Structure formats: structure tokens, C-alpha cells
Amino acid sequence: MAENSVRLQVRNLSFSYGEKPAVDHVDFHVNRGEFVGLIGPNGSGKSTVLKTIYRALPPDEGEILLDGKPIADMSYRESALKMAVVGQENDVPFNFKVREIVAMGRTPHKRLFDLDTPEDRYMVHHALEHVGMEDMEERSYLHLSGGERQRVIIARAVAQESDFFIMDEPTNHLDISYQLQIFDFVRRLGVTVLSAIHDLNMAALYCDRLYVLKRGRVVLEGTPEEVLTEANIRDVYGVSCTVAKHPATDKVAITFLPARRQKEDT
Amino acid sequence: MPEKRKIRNEAGELKLGFVILILIIAAAATLFVATGFGPVSVAPGTTARILLSRLPGIGNHIVPDWTPVSENIVLVLRLPRVCLGLVVGASLAVCGVTMQALVRNNLADPFILGVSSGAAAFATLGMLFGVFAFLGTYSLSISAFIGAAITIIVVYILSRIRGRINITHLLLSGVAVSMIMDGVTSIIKLGAPNALGLHNAEFWMSGSLASAKWAYLKLPLIVLILCMIFLMLNHRGLNLLLLGEESAGSLGVNVRRLQKELILVASLIAGVTIAVSGTIGFVGLMVPHFTRLLVGGDHKKVLPISALLGGILVVWVDVVARLIIAPEELPVGILTAIIGGPIFIILLKRSNKEKR
Fold first, then answer.
1. A84-126 tens-digit pLDDT
2. A100 contact residues in B (CB cutoff 8 A)
3. ipTM score here?
4. Domains of chain A, each with CATH number or no CATH
5. Using CA atoms, how far apart are residues B9 and A123, in angstroms rounded to an integer?
């Protein structure tokens, strides 16, 4: 039963783009229903870890088990049925309607000779409803704002009907209202999530557990309260801050201190 | 709400069928009308009756009142040329669509990326020196296919940087490779052992349907149909490739395999087409672009509509090419560029305006 609740198990994972390892013997896991965050400075290997998991990069070493089965042994279709990816590669240089982009999420459910069915259309509509974009089905994806595009990509993942989302900084470059909205949409789905998150306060708000990557290694892990301490943040990011539990959210909230202030202190 | 949705979606599907039906009618009309045009005038009524007399069922009811010369012109000279135009145009358009999905860029075209030049270089080699003569009847097509495949692979490898196609590198390596291949063709021609072969090669290379015969039609048609079936079955995969390799993989596409298959398909279509018509440029660029402006990017629609539009376009451009400076003929390739370019620019401008 305990083994059953582990959705993703990463063991001894390594990957390098050239000489220098980008991911260096990383171990971690994601349990069923958990919202797990990967945090760490730029270039710490967050995206690379995720890319090996969603099979955009082949790991040099190590093992990735999804529901107990090595991901390397699965067909692309099989892994696509188990996990949906919200990556950073969301520009489409061709003219597609919102509805068509979301319908692409149905692909793993389709065999070679299958036609689109009313059920597919229902799923697409339902997914767009979930992100509040059902009125924009016929709009061109090219003409959407960044926040709207990200919602469409979330809808595509919903239409994919998998209960495990891999997200790579899904709120990058978005306005704060969209950032909250995106995470709220995903949390409302009740799916298992593994997400790289840039913003530590967002990580504190939404994640059940965090793994901290630095130079390709997992240096810290635990709940946001355990991981996001003033000492840890100074060690990993090299910045000063104060951390306090916010009364309204009951989550830790981090206030970063500007450099000048730090000098005055010391 | 879902009820309303359903109707509208079905209306959307209907519209695709409707567009295709209209285009099929247009293609059929093109076949009849375009056959009537040429330096020697055969009355349209006569042309129609000659064509109808060959149709099973109707044929017996038509009394032949035309001269054997007219019949010869229509059935032996013009009809194969029009049919070849349809097949070549459809092939070039489909080849363009395939290459655009492969490199994820709507500027890809067999002409622009040097594939035509590569095919032409190898075909010339075969034509003048009989290098691939051991391959038999289809030696020209096979040598053009090999040339096309080599060029696509070279350009593809050169323009991939860290797993992504770089647009600048794509276009520049296309230009560079096509220059190299054109250079190779020139050298081959200089060393050509016989004048007749050289003349044929020159004429063929300028892009022309003038030498059309029924026998030329079979292979390109078979290849077009087979490739179309493959592409239509994989229309979802093609759509996903446009999202990028990572997204395509995460949505269940075996990206590496599909890319290899598309390289094969594009080389096959380009090779056999260029072997019969020489290089007719810009069809593979313009037609998919028009099509996307009409129906969007979904390959389920883009593939059949591009094929029909491409066929119709090439036939009509060929009609103009043989009339405009009659009795001389312009190479079709020159006209496709001159006619297609400005229309393309206008449509592009219009779509940009809508964006804002």
C-alpha cells in the first residue's frame, strides 16, 4: 500500500549537456495527491530534471519510475496517458484555434484510425470551462495574452485526462493575478503535481513538499516550513530575508531584504 | 449550452467537407477548361465532347464529329499535361506542408531549402551519365529521390542547434546547399557527353510540364496517394510537431520516428515530382500558407485542401505559361514565383492587420 502511493520515483538521476553535470545523482519522489515543488536558483537543474522525467532528454544515469514502471520502457503514448506536461515551450508559430490546441490533449487517447468523437469535443469544452475560457474556443491562439495562453495549456493538460501534472515554472512572466489563478486551477483539479517554481512565496503557498536543487544536486527537502528558513535561503540563494507565518494563509511568507539593508546590518 | 456547442462543431466539420467538395468540383472544371487552352485552338464544346466521349457510360451517346488532329491534341498532348499539373501541384503543396511540420516553420518549401536543387543535381547526373541506369525505368525518379533525401537530411542537421531548428540557420543552410547543388549540376552539365542529353536536361530543369506523357503520371500519382494516406493518418502527430518536440513527446508522439518518416515522405514526393516536372518553386510555400489563412493550422484540413489548391494553381499557371508569349512557352517555375509572390504578400499583410 505504501509503495502504491508513490507515483513518481526518481533514483540516482544524472544528466549532462557537456562536460559539466546539469543534474548530479538526484533522488526524490512524489506521492499520490501531493503538490511537490522543485525550487532553486537559475541554472540549478530544475528544468533539466523535469525534461528527463517527461522524456525530452534521455538521462545519462539513474532510473525514473512512474507508477512503479520504468518510464524508458513505456511507449510515448503510455507515458502521455499517465502524465500531462505544462512546459515552457508554448509558442506555436502556426495559426490554431484555442479549441484545436486543447483538442491536441486528446491525442494519446486516439489510435491511428480514430476520428474525433462528441466525447472529445465535450472534454475540450469541459477543460476550457475549468479555466474559464469556454467563450474563447474559436479565438486564435496566436492572438492570446501570455496568461490566456497558459490557461489554454492547462486546459490541454486537463483534456489529456491524466492525474499527474508536470509543470515547468508555469507562471513565469505572468501577472500576479494569473500566477495565483494558474496554481488555483491546478490545485482545484486535485491531481498530483510536480512543478518547478521560481517564486518562493508561491512555492510556500501551494506546495505540500519542496526539493531544493543547487548545482544539479538536491540539497534540501521537506515541507515549506522546514525548507524555507532564513538560514537555508541565505545558503542557497545568497540573499537575506525574514520568514514569518502569515496569519491569513497559515503559510510561511518570505520578505526579501535589499542589499543595502544587509550591509547596514553587518 | 452543450447542445448548441455540438451543432456548431458539426457545422464546422460540415464546412470542411463543403470546402473540399467545392475544390473537387473546381479541380474537375479545371481539368475540362484548361484542356481547351493552347496554341492551337480547339473549340471548348469539341474539347468537352472529346473528353466526355472517353467517359464510360456517357461516351457511347456522343457522335464523333471532330477531326483526328483535334482528338490527338486533346487526349495525347493536353490532357496528360493538365493531369500532370494537378498531380505535381498537389505533390509540391503536400511536400511543403510536410517540410513545414518537420522544421516547424512555415517558410519551408522544397525549392527554398534546396531540396529541388539536390534532386535536380542527382537527376541530371543520372540523365547525362546514366549513373543510376541500373535502376531501370524509374532511374530518374529514384536518383531525384536520393538527391532530395540527402539534401533534406543535410539541411535538417545543419539547422538543428541544441535540438531545435534555428530559422536563420535553416534558411541559410537551405540557400548554401541549394547553391552547392546548383554548382554540382553546372559541373555535370559542362562535362556532359552528349548535346541532346544536355538540351533535355536544361529544358527539364527550368521547370516545365511540356513533356507530359501518360506514362509519367503513374509513379507520382501512386506516391502522392500513398503519402497522403500516411500523412492523413498521422495528422494529429503533424499538428503536435508544430507545438515543438518536447510538447509533442509529452502528448504521446514518438517524435524521432515521426521525423524520420516525414523526411522519407518529403523526399519521396519531392523526388518523383521533380523527376517529371523539374523545379517549380514556391508552390509548396504559397499553397499551404493560403490554406492556413483559409482554414487555420489543423493538418486534417490543411493536407487535403492544400493538395487540391496546389493542383488547381499549377494547372492554371501552366495554362498562362503556354499562352502568354505563344507560340513560345514560359517555364512554369518562373510564373509560379511571379504570380504567387504578390498574392502571398497581400494575404500576409491582411492577416497581420487582423492580428492587431
1. 999 877 888 788 999 999 999 999 999 888 888 899 999 999 9
2. 239, 296-298
3. 0.88
4. 1-83+162-232 (3.40.50.300), 92-161 (no CATH)
5. 13
